[in-house]
Amino acid sequence: MTTDIRQALAHNSWFTELPEDCQQSLLSVARLKNYVAHSVIHSKGQAPNGLFFINKGKIRISNFTPDGKEVVLTWLTAGEWFGEISCFDNLPRTHSATVDEAAELIVIGHKDFPQVCQKHPELYRHFIPIFCQRIRLLFELVDEARTLPVKLQLVKRLLHLHQSAKDTQQPLEVSQESLALMLNTTRQSVNRWLNELQAEGLIQLAYNKIAFDPSKLQIYLHNESG
């Protein structure tokens, strides 16, 4: 099992840049776990339950409004880590994590993680880039919500999803319903804006797929928001 996990992490730059003894300690407590689609990995407010690496699949990170409406923050795909915040501050989960597509995760248990960090305090500095990435994304989303029309927020989300996609040469695979959840708007509104962008020659639509040249969308965004 440890061999399988090491092979899964062999192409993850964050893990391979760790000192060899840190890698070995993490591997010694890591385990592979499979999740079926729609299963909940953790819910907002839940006690910490570990650090996760996505080997296969797609994870939806979201919150719920008081009336039960889901608001999606982002999707995470193969090669990404999540769950680190509660592992460090030992406080309840800030968001829910749900399996969108059947997933294989590498899990480092909540009790094991602090023991590894205590043994290898140099691990803390390796988590700084992950935290900075999360904070930058949060600030960007807050700024977008306060300053941009929702149509331009949609363009920003398309660019963000493209950047984080496993294969950026392929059309972006995302449903209009999913985009509506991310923007806290209706699918009908997303459909209208996507068709407008297609009419302007900026994107090409297919079933649950959106193809585009990110440089053209960047120029469009700059012109419209400037």
Distance between the termini: 53 Å
- Fraction of residues in β-strands: 15-25%
Low-confidence stretches: none
Shape, please?
elongated
Going by helix content, strand content and strand pairing, the class is alpha+beta
- Percent of residues in helical segments? 40-55%
User: What does the main sheet amount to?
Assistant: 6 strands, antiparallel
How many helices? 10
Question: How many DSSP E strands?
Answer: 9
Secondary-structure element order, as H and E? Answer: HHHEEEEEHEHHHEHHEEH
Radius of gyration: 19 Å
Q: Can you offer a commentary on this structure?
A:
- With 226 residues, this protein is of the alpha+beta class.
- Helix content is 48%, strand content 25%.
- It contains 10 helices and 9 strands.
- The chain has helices at residues 2-9, 13-16, 20-29, 84-89, 112-119, 123-147, 150-164, 176-183, 187-199, 214-225, and strands at residues 30-35, 40-42, 51-64, 70-77, 81-82, 96-108, 172-173, 203-206, 209-212.
- Strands 1, 2, 3, 4, 5 and 6 form a 6-stranded antiparallel sheet that branches. Strands 7-9-8 form a 3-stranded antiparallel sheet.
- A hairpin with a 2-residue loop joins strand 8 and strand 9.
- Helix 7 runs antiparallel to helix 10 (214-225) and helix 8 (176-183) crosses helix 9 (187-199).
- The radius of gyration is 19 Å and the shape is elongated.
- The N and C termini lie far apart (53 Å).
- The relative contact order is 0.13.
- The model has no long low-confidence stretch (mean pLDDT 90).
